């Protein structure tokens, strides 16, 4: 079986090389990728950040990821970002990171949908990209993202923090992404 997989892979690899040999002197005829990974990360970040802004405006929380309300009107604070039994239809408040995770869940069941938005928020808040050319940044490793979540959570949970400051951070992050897309000539991603 390993020979068949290797043989198939070699054919696929050879097919890619053959595509480049079709016209070695004419780069305009070479196959191109139609989707930029950065453009995709920008679009994902904008879609999630826009939805997260709505979550924060409906209800913002500190010192908890989510505040849930049961049908009887009783509220419960959840301290874990990935609680085992979270009925997302009953979320009435969320912290900054909780709002991003909730917004991402509304668009996809995969938590990875939130990663570009988390990275973009961190870059905006802590100036991770001094030139301002890449507001979302490259894909980061799990330990780096965990540190970014910690930084954003600490910022959100300061006693003097207000909902308006959280909404302002979301707005500034979305504006940075749109401006970077304008500067680079990429089509502006609209959520």
Structural features, described:
The protein has 191 residues and is mostly helical. The protein has one domain. The protein has 6 helices and 3 strands, in the order ααβββαααα. The chain has helices spanning 2-21, 37-58, 96-107, 115-126, 142-156, 163-184; strands at 66-69, 75-78, 91-94. It has a 3-stranded antiparallel sheet with strand order 2-1-3. The radius of gyration is 21 Å and the shape is globular.
Structural topology:
Elements: H1 2-21, H2 37-58, E1 66-69, E2 75-78, E3 91-94, H3 96-107, H4 115-126, H5 142-156, H6 163-184
Antiparallel strand pairs: 1-2, 1-3
Helix pairs in contact: 2-3, 2-4, 2-6, 4-5, 4-6
Q: Kindly estimate the percentage of residues that lie in beta strands according to DSSP.
A: 5-15%
Low-confidence stretches: 1-35
Apparent shape: globular
**Tally of discrete structural domains:** 1
Q: What's the total count of β strands?
A: 3
Average pLDDT works out at: 77
User: Main sheet: which strands, in order across?
Assistant: 2-1-3
Largest sheet: 3 strands, antiparallel
Pattern of helices and strands: HHEEEHHHH
